[in-house]
Amino acid sequence: MYRYVKQCYRDSVSLMQFAKGFKTRGFDEVSAVMATAANLALLHESGLLAEVLEPRPDDLLLVLKGADLTAQDLADAEAELLKPSSPAGEAGDLREAPGSVAEAQSRNPALNFALISVPGDYAAAEGLKALAAGLHVMLFSDNVSVEREVFLKTEAGRRGLLLLGPDCGTSIVNGDPLGFANQVRRGPVGVVSASGTGLQEVTSLLDRWGSGVSQALGTGGRDLKEAVGGLTTLACLDLLQADAETKVVVLVSKPPSASVQALLLGRLAALGKPFVTCFVGDPQSLTLAQAAQKAFVLAEGRAPDSRESADLPPNPEPERCGGRWLRGLYSGGTLCAEAASLSARSLRTVASNVTVPGVSPLADPWSSVGNTFVDLGEDEFTRGRPHPMIDQSLRLDRFALEAADESVAAVVIDVVLGHGSHFDPATEWARFLEDLPVRSSGHRVPVFASVTGTDADPQGWSRSLATLRLGGVAAYGSNVEAVEAAVAFVSRSQELL
What we know:
19 strands; alpha/beta; 4 domains; globular; Rossmann fold; 497 residues
């Protein structure tokens, strides 16, 4: 069943959070999207919408799927979605959100930054309006053509402004976390990243070790492609070079094209400040944790004092569990890429739905073969559904399938905390694993986890880590630690077969 809500815009993060929350009421599927042609096509392709509807991009489309749906269910969903958010000011000071960039500026002429999250068909136009108004822009929206991306970034450069994105899901600007980001303290390290979860991993580690971040700027995943040429990355490096608070610069991305990499390394060398690069998936590159550690040493003049693994439960015994394959089920694409790359160095073959040097492409992302690492945040899994960092149900379902396969020796997962993410992912995992059936050996499949976040995050990093460990999960404070432990365990298991 579906219902249009006329002329009702909501950003994608709030829609995903709504769908996650409303689904807990017992529906099979809940989707809330703007009724653009692209979104309607995705819903139809995913089987959530049987009818072919005309696009109505100014309207919001609610889709509910379940055995006993009623018209009242749709009415309740609409009422829930339209419920006013908490007021930002004093009681009685609640005002409707501005309907345009111009209206927002008229309310507050001091504004200098716009976060734009609208359907991709309209994102470039809204970004251009914001740039013309003299605003720096974070473009959360995806599905923007590369030609429009280059145009926007060139226009931003001409005006002396930043254009972060498109498809920029994470930034920390002047201490404020934007999109999917963690609450980290201010400090001397500036981060420029084409990866959202890569940025989260590095900034969270710096915070937990006792340092902090001046700015953490997402560029969008295509910025270091040949066609874009690193336009936003170069602009961010200019900003950090001029920023007196930034003492060390970290650059995070998947391996850039050769020409763009040469350009960036030349620019970094001219910064006049120490810098660290992390090209995730490059066998010659630092890991995310190593990059954070190197930046910490450069910024603080000492090694980090980390005791994050002090209370780690004993790893399970391979001879008691059996199996020969390692499966990785990730919500973060860069964390998945790093995990697959690290595993491929020790295990014979590794397949994944993310593109990583030395890792085989996975023919069917819905079906694991051998050692497999899956990013469940890729488009094939999120069409018409919330992202797995918000709604873990699809990943939990996939985990149950992997756990039932007795050829699987272990599963490694990421648990990403922060603003915008699931309100308590560790507890949901612990409860799910407690109810998981045991195998014929009498044991459950061993689980290794990395936990990305800080104690200032809404979920609490220390609390989340303790919850997982009490649930029998071998939980670590960094992705590389979790993956290395899982690979060592699976290697021993394979030796026993």
